[in-house]
């Protein structure tokens, strides 16, 4: 029996289950401390493997298309933050201050890698350019996202001092990433051969962060603070943000004279935000504070973007082949 099109993927269902477990059985005390250490180690391993998986050849193959890459980076790191700020009069009263900060954090994140490339491939877009843009966005995001977070949210006191935030990123994310790039010479082929099961390392890291974050949030009374009406409002806010991003990236690609294949790449690489990077990075940037509400927008946005982009990619894929 085929899987229903609108049914979330297995990982998203697992993510929902973990939120449920954290709501019923939150960790606290010494157990929470132990989970915190395990989570930090898992995040370091995650970024080590990201470094080991990132192919220099793939980046070089698509690097020459600089106009496309500039537009994708501008959509990811300029357009989204601007939308987040411009929509504040609508979104902040709609979802509340803490969830609005989570939306700002979502806007500062880099693009996805795997799904952006997969949807571009399915839609018959410019795949080498998608590989280059998505990989470079993930790498640049390690540096740029903390700066954007400080710029967008620092005045609200959520991200700590600049030096502290940068130091945490360097130690917990950048150094493991560089180590992975160095180790790629020896383990790159092994990582490529075992990429199917290694994706569970990525997923396990995210699930650990979600469990520890929501455990703390549940103990602090997140579900008393977050009625169903607020969740519905957040769903609307994430949908609105994605719709605007898709419309503007599609319009810019056409307005600037890109080919259809390039416009497809711009659409799928410039409108996405990475759950795989966003959740672990939140654990680093906002350590010491409750991040349950801060990561809720990216968790919802992730599922919405997958469902909407799957439909768009299928429509592009059905266009006639050019002779």
UniProtKB/TrEMBL annotation:
InterPro entries: Na+/solute_symporter_sf, Put_Na-Bile_cotransptr. The keyword Transmembrane applies. GO terms for cellular component: plasma membrane. Keywords: Membrane, Transmembrane, Transmembrane helix. The chain crosses the membrane at residues 7-25, 31-49, 70-87, 99-119, 131-153, 165-183, 204-223, 229-252, 264-285. Gene3D superfamilies: 1.20.1530.20. It comes from the Bacteria. This is Bile acid:sodium symporter. It comes from Stutzerimonas kirkiae.
